[in-house]
Amino acid sequence: MAHMTISLLEIVSIAVTAAALATGGAASPPAPAPMEMPGCHTICGNISVPYPFGMGPARCYWPGFNLTCENTTTPPRLLLRGAGGDILQVDHFSLRESSVLVERTPGDVKIDGDGNGSIFSGGPDHGTYSIMLSDDWGGEGNELILLGCDVRVTLKHGNATLSACSTLCGDDQPHQPMWYVPSRLETSTVCAGVGCCQAPIVSAAAVVGNVRVQLEWFGRNRSADEERMPTRVFVADHGWFEKKQVSEPLLLRKPSARGTTGIPVDGVPVWPSWEVDTNISSSHGHGHVVCDEGTRGGYTCRCESNYEGNPYIPDGCQDIDECGLHPCHDGGVCTNRDGGFDCGCPPGTHGDKALPGGCIPFVSVTGRLLLTSARASIVDTYQLG
């Protein structure tokens, strides 16, 4: 029988090697998931533009999702232009929610003498996947805001009512501008129905350009009501109007450093949402993508669970390295794999990490050092000198 002399340090080295074999070693972190088409310019000011939006050549954006970078301002502005004159300045993209945050200028909805108006009239129009009005998702999204006295506003798409609210002022109030508008909160503006009202938008099935606004006055003296609080309608990002620096100049008609009309000069923020016309989940090169049918015949797409990135470009959804989130408990060793991860026993132990107490230490038998694992088994006999 062969005999050899080995030091304690070498024994420890062998044990560490076996433990590494048991855990499979550390996987190299995946490359950042791409967000745009190769060879396309995607930066405008401080905003990065993800596909399907894009600038420049047609290959850089999905049809109907082209944007313009206006370099005459500092910083440059990313613009989504409407055919009817609306200028939408892009502030933020949400691929997960298929939405984009824009600033609308002018900010309020234009109403004619009969009390009718529309949202985004002349906005981007490219079939079933043009930009839509978004729902109130996750406590964010949009809300309807009405300023005025003794008036009701209704937001409609076809015969469907998307939102509505009413304001009262009372016939016993003096015919002069209101000097106080009550709020439900002290530190922010939440309309109580006197002078203004707010309402969530409960449906997103609204095609851009077909979202109608209808006003109905029910007071005794409309001209007196207008003197107390001019009627104005906004569709805006939830939480925008609650800021005192926004609502007070609008309600009390105070001059504002942000604009003498009371409307912030940088526009009113609103979330449109969008769809594409193709279900790309079965397309070649679009692996790990899930597409859901939208409200207008198009699709919204996302990466599968355990993947992240941009589902709209080939190979845009890439594996998430879950080990960076430290998902293994009780000292378990994480090994990342495509679409998931595995938890192995801590170094110096072996067994089944999924079972309580399933990891047991490596054992030393008289005259033998037994090292076992799921991938390697090292057995040898050593004679300590």
Automatic annotation (TrEMBL):
Major location category of this protein: membrane
GO cellular component terms given for this protein: membrane
InterPro entries recorded: EGF (IPR000742), EGF-like_Ca-bd_dom (IPR001881), EGF-type_Asp/Asn_hydroxyl_site (IPR000152), EGF_Ca-bd_CS (IPR018097), NOTCH1_EGF-like (IPR049883), WAK_GUB (IPR025287)
GO molecular function: calcium ion binding; polysaccharide binding
Signal peptide stretch: 1-27
EGF-like domain residues: 319-355
CDD domains: EGF_CA
Pfam families documented for this protein: EGF_CA, GUB_WAK_bind
UniProt name for this protein: EGF-like domain-containing protein
Source organism (scientific name): Triticum turgidum subsp. durum (Durum wheat)
The UniProt record lists the keyword Disulfide bond: yes
